[in-house]
Amino acid sequence: MKMKKLIxxxxxxxxxxxxxxxxxxxxxxxxxxYDTFELEVINHPELKSKQTITPDGxxxxxxxxxxxxxxxxxxxxxxYLSDSYSLYIKNPQVTISLTxxxxxxxxxxxxDNIWEVKMAxxxxxxxxxxxxxxxxxxxxxNIYKITMSKKPNFWGxxxxxxxxxxxxxxxxxxxxxx
Length: 178
What we know:
This protein has helices at 2-24, 74-85, 123-130, 154-176; strands spanning 36-41, 44-52, 58-61, 65-68, 94-99, 103-109, 114-120, 143-148. By secondary structure, it is of the alpha+beta class.
């Protein structure tokens, strides 16, 4: 009996640790053309700037001129700007506010013969708007075309999975509380 509890506990711990590791190592947002960001150096209002990355992946920043930004993460950009501005300012405190490119969802409803274009500001919002497959890789700035024959009905399409998942959770709980 103790062996069953130990195995069940280890299985749950392994599952939870893999979830936590994947959440902690999630990819950072990568800057690309048409991303907009605001730059501010504390106590230096003359360096405040709002920039949109050009199609060739560059932006023109005060004191630094034109710099390549495509492919950098926000942490890379913050480090680069802090190092670059430290040549002109003692201990610069740089802040960056990013406005990522929106995600466009184009839905065609076969039943009503209607096209709808929706704009999502985040990947989670795009998934909610379209009920997309969670394994599908959604990225900012892309356009996704969805064809629907009817409006999504979560319970009607997933009732079996919901009941099965509830039964599994109840079984694990009853095993652990014995």
